């Protein structure tokens, strides 16, 4: 009797929590409407939410993932070693090529030959913006896009070199399949009066050329927790930080090649459908989607806080 009551209460509480999170997700997808964002909320809530929300989601999902990860731990060390040696070989053969063939005025060029469109790292970083109007015309071939994504996976740093980020790249028809799936997941849960806005946004993403899905594989972090428990409470944050570095690296690298992009968060609503469809291990956690394509429009206006509020220098000569 008491046990029944307890499971009822636990079930109810979990249900309320999940519903609250789903509703919050939907509100957020509306919040990020470019019109709202640029006219009313240039700096505000867009940066405030992800932290708290992601933590809520993480605390709901982690116990299961840790348990699943434990089953796989045995295989990890072998994988890390074989992965690392192949990374080293590749570093020697292909990744060093751009550095030797491009001049120091193009340190961020991802091309093996100097291309007119390639920009310096700072130039590309300054020009990178959120571009919502994308199309399917890419200044570079698919093979080059894939090469840039492989480079991200090999050169972006991670804590203890864990390399926990997984990049699933969807191009052309597969990019459209993904956004159709997001459409199918959202259609039944978005309130009718908001559907037109949501549909407009989804159509905009689908009009692009490709999407990179950023996942975190919890397995390397679980292994590290066992091996070096002293930092255990940091590993989650560090995996997030390294995942975000991959996001930024690619956003700027695509800009350097003349592609536009925007960053989306339809996780966790679409996770299950996507992971099943692309046969992605269910324990990987989807963190973000970078949509990219030809620039078919301009970025909206953006306010920049006075730099003195953000940068503090001591000892410059
Ligand atoms: C961590 C992070 C999460 C973001 N999430 C979204 C998002 O879910 N949807 C969206 O349209 N833009 C998203 N953005 C884009 C920001 O709103 C945008 O980068 C910011 O307003 C600055 O504009 P800019 O990218 O044009 O420089 C996100 C950006 C960051 C860094
Ligand atoms: C994409 O947009 C660019 C810039 O407006 C344009 O030159 C190109 O033709 C467009 N491609 C398609 C397929 O519409």
Automatic annotation (TrEMBL):
Transmembrane spans: 7-27
Keyword presence, Lipid metabolism: no
Key word Transmembrane present: yes
Annotated region described as Disordered, given as residue ranges: 88-115
Low complexity bias locations: 93-115
GO cellular component, one term: cytoplasm
Gene Ontology biological process terms from the UniProt entry: cellular response to oxidative stress
Residues of the Nitroreductase domain: 126-293
Pfam families found in the cross-reference section: Nitroreductase (PF00881)
Domain of life per record: Eukaryota
GO molecular function: oxidoreductase activity
UniProt entry keywords in alphabetical sequence: Cytoplasm, Membrane, Nucleus, Oxidoreductase, Transmembrane, Transmembrane helix
Record localization: Cytoplasm; Nucleus
Family, as annotated: Belongs to the nitroreductase family.
Full protein name: Nitroreductase
Higher taxonomy: Eukaryota, Fungi, Dikarya, Ascomycota, Pezizomycotina
């Amino acid at each position: 009797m008491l046990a029944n009551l307890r499971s009822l209460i636990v079930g109810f509480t979990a249900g309320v929590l999940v519903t609250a999170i789903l509703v919050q997700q939907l509100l957020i997808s509306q919040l990020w409407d470019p019109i709202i964002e640029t006219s009313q909320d240039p700096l505000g809530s867009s940066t405030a939410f992800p932290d708290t929300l992601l933590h809520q989601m993480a605390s709901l999902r982690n116990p299961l993932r840790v348990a699943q990860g434990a089953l796989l731990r045995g295989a990890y060390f072998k994988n890390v070693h074989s992965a690392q040696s192949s990374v080293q070989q590749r570093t020697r053969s292909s990744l060093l090529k751009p550095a030797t063939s491009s001049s120091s005025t193009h340190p961020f060029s991802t091309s093996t030959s100097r291309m007119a469109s390639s920009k310096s790292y700072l130039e590309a970083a300054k020009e990178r913006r959120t571009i919502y109007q994308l199309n399917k015309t890419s200044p570079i071939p698919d093979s080059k896009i894939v090469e840039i994504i492989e480079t991200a996976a090999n050169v972006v740093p991670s804590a203890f070199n864990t390399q926990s980020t997984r990049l699933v790249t969807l191009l052309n028809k597969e990019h459209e399949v993904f956004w159709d799936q997001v459409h199918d997941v959202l259609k039944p849960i978005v309130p009718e009066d908001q559907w037109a806005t949501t549909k407009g946004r989804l159509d905009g993403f689908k009009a692009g050329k490709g999407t990179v899905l950023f996942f975190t594989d919890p397995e390397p972090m679980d292994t590290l927790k066992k091996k070096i428990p002293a930092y255990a409470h940091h590993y989650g944050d560090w995996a997030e930080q390294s995942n975000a570095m991959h996001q930024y690296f690619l956003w700027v690298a695509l800009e350097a090649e003349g592609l536009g992009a925007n960053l989306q968060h339809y996780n966790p609503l679409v996770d299950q459908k996507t992971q099943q469809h692309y046969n992605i291990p269910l324990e990987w956690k989807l963190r973000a989607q970078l949509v990219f394509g030809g620039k078919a429009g301009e970025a909206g206006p953006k306010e920049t806080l006075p730099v003195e509020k953000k940068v503090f220098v001591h000892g410059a000569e």
